[in-house]
Amino acid sequence: DNDNDNDNDNDNDNNDDINPTSSIQESLNDVEVTESPNQQPAAPIPTVSKDAPPFRFIRATKGDIVAAKVRWSDTLKWREQLGMDTILNEPHPNLALIKENYPHYFHNRGRKNECCYYEKPPKMNLKIMRDAGIELDDILRHYALCCEYMWCKIEPSEDGKSIYIIDLDGMGLRDFAGEVVDFVKKASAFTGAHYPERSGSIFVVNVPSWFSIIWNVVRSMVDEVTKEKITILRSGKAAITKALVEKIPIENIPEEYGGTSGALGSSPEEKKFINHFTSLGE
Fold it and tell me: What single string gives the DSSP state of each residue in 100-117?
């Protein structure tokens, strides 16, 4: 999501506060979503004028119309380069392998109807995917596809927000110089640039004890607005559940984080996501 969202902190275990007029004419054209007779909705195609950025971009630039237009122009170029306008209509033959070797899930909604997205970067097996011909750029395009699905299918509203839970269980110090962290940085960069004003809350959970060392290095590069959205928690299921339940109803939190909604991968949103691309490949 995405107000230049980077990892920040509110280390609950140590109780450290590290958390990480004139009228503007409406410039947003609604994204169209059409349903096909066989229940497989066609992917929405952005219809916003190149000269009229979505209002989210204007908010993200604090009302600077010129800056918003520049940012929107960059986003249009990025969308064209990655084929974002048609990506949800294309078969995804690598989906099963990527899902198996890179745990990430849509899972229910937050208290304010936010889309909830869980991700486990340390569990990513790049070797298996690379051996199958899937490179880091392919995984990044898949991540962009997930973002597009979230904001076109799950929550097409321009005011929609997300709750992002990134689980660092198993992260080693050496990983911070590896490709997994490179992936996280690149994914965060394009979501922040091209999906602005989407982040509601960010939870970084199961962080290692030495994480504060890394955080002290990067925290100065994180804007204050983003810092206020991020909570960092060490391992401890009870503490994680307590933090999540402030933003997500207990019945919508997955079991492994102390909720009662079932396991990750079992939510209606996740099943529809898988079924969407499975049907395209049939």
Answer: HHS-EEEEEE-TTS-EEE
